[in-house]
């Protein structure tokens, strides 16, 4: 968001010391900006493969009217499991370096959980192994069986009866074997 009379240029704005740290179940990003007489938006981008990035957060309308260096931070409250890459961009003109952060091997995350119509499944699959996914209800009935090499899958849950399900992810080499509970409410 640019304000009247303000402009952003790479000559007047510098972004430095971009850092990414895992803090328990979240990822904290921090950076310093030195600019003069500018307003900009800070857009945070994330990737699960270091190639394709998606915007995951924005700090709108940051205005700097002095020449001091200011610190900014943003918390990713739903980080990807496994390895992820981040960068921050200031109004499409100034961009940080890309930073890599690793997670625990075998992590799995369902969001939202509980869910209504759909849930996103994120899991660590850096070697793009074949993963078999199953979704089973409390009575043992299997509602989903599929295989993927991706590290994220959208689960359509609008047609499932409300209840508690067990989601399993097993790699063909047997190194990954994870179970997670998924709650569906309508």
What does this structure look like?
With 186 residues, this protein is mainly beta. It folds into two domains: 13-101, Immunoglobulin-like, CATH 2.60.40; 108-184, Immunoglobulin-like, CATH 2.60.40. The protein contains no helices and 15 strands. Strands 3, 4, 6, 7 and 8 form a five-stranded antiparallel β-sheet that branches. A hairpin with a 5-residue loop joins strand 14 and strand 15 (177-184).
Low-confidence stretches: 1-10
CATH topology description of the largest domain = Immunoglobulin-like
Query: What structural class should be given to the helix and strand makeup?
Result: mainly beta
CATH architecture assignment name of the largest domain: Sandwich
Largest sheet: 5 strands, antiparallel
Q: What is the CATH domain class of the largest domain?
A: Mainly Beta
Oligomer: single chain
Radius of gyration: 20 Å
Given the structure, what is the number of helices? 0
Strand segment tally? 15
The overall average pLDDT, rounded, is 83
Strand content: over 45%
Taken from the alpha-carbon principal axes, the silhouette is: elongated
Residues in helices, as a percent range = under 10%
Q: Keyphrases for this structure?
A:
single chain, 186 residues, Immunoglobulin-like, 2 domains, 15 strands, 58% strand, disordered N terminus
């Amino acid at each position: 968001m640019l304000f009247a009379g303000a402009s952003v240029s790479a000559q007047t704005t510098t972004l430095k010391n971009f850092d990414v740290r895992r803090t328990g179940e979240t990822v904290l990003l921090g950076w310093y900006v030195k600019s003069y007489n500018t307003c900009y938006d800070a857009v945070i981008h994330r990737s699960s493969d270091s190639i394709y990035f998606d915007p995951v957060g924005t700090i709108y309308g940051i205005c700097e009217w002095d020449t001091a260096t200011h610190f900014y931070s943003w918390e990713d409250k739903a980080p990807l499991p496994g390895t992820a890459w981040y960068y921050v961009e200031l109004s499409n003109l100034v961009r940080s370096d890309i930073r890599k952060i690793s997670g625990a091997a075998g992590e799995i995350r369902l969001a939202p959980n509980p869910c209504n119509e759909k849930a996103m499944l994120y899991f660590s699959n850096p070697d793009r192994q074949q993963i078999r996914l199953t979704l089973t209800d409390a009575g043992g009935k299997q509602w989903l069986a599929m295989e993927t090499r991706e590290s994220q899958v959208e689960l359509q849950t609008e047609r499932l009866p409300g209840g508690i399900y067990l989601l399993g992810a097993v790699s063909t080499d047997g190194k990954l074997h994870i179970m997670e509970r998924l709650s569906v409410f309508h």
